[in-house]
Amino acid sequence: MTVQADYPLTDQQVAQYQRDGHILLDNVLDAACIPPYKAAIEETVSRRNKERRALKDRDTYGKAFLQTTNLWEHSAKVKEYVTAKRFAGIAARLMGVERVRLYHDQALFKEAGGGITPWHQDQHYWPLATDKTVTMWMTLADISADMGTLRFASGSHLEGYLGDIPISDESETQLKAFVERQGFRLAQAAEMKAGAATFHSGWTLHSAPPNFSDRMRPAMTVIYYADGTRVSELDNESRVNDRDHWLPGTEPGDLAATKMNPLLG
Ligand SMILES: O=C(O)CCC(=O)C(=O)O
To answer: Is 1's pLDDT higher than 70?
Structure first.
């Protein structure tokens, strides 16, 4: 079973995404499709993830989730998922662009008892000279807010880049205070069914609570950007690192279009 091509997105949903910088969509992946993709993603995570420390021995970032990147390079089944036209089509439509490229994917499994995901902006890490970036964050199991559904500061994407503040205790303190000061409306799904996904812009401030349950929160993410985007200045360490991983061989000003960034629909 493969992912169906089209998703029925309304103009109102597109407007909502552009206003808030995030949206929750149900049935992005049909229930019938979940078992084979979930199995492939879980198998690839268990093969590739190298974290062996107990939760208590990790820092705040390490406690937030087991992070496993670019699974699509290591499993044909996961590649089918990551490159699905349906997901890329939603990303393109939400951003109002013709076509998108893949930046990278990552599984973010918040373990039972896992800690907070501190407030942050994703695009702090990305050397992409555009506002047209989006992350699809899909749960592969039914989850509730106390397992770590994402919490978004609605409208915060309109602030653009807020500075070199990587995910850390400091980002939690600084950006939480900023969110409170600015009075952004907070949005968090109380529940998400397996196959539901949130889409958020690269500038949208977001965080997640700990996983208070005794079950894993298995989330899979795919990051897209508008075709035609150029590589930005490498003005922080994270962006140099990301360029080396996801845009190899490029320099600032080059088209962000390497073999790692296939055009998706
Ligand atoms: O999964 C999480 O807790 C955080 C996810 C996140 O920050 C992202 O996908 O941008």
So the answer is: no
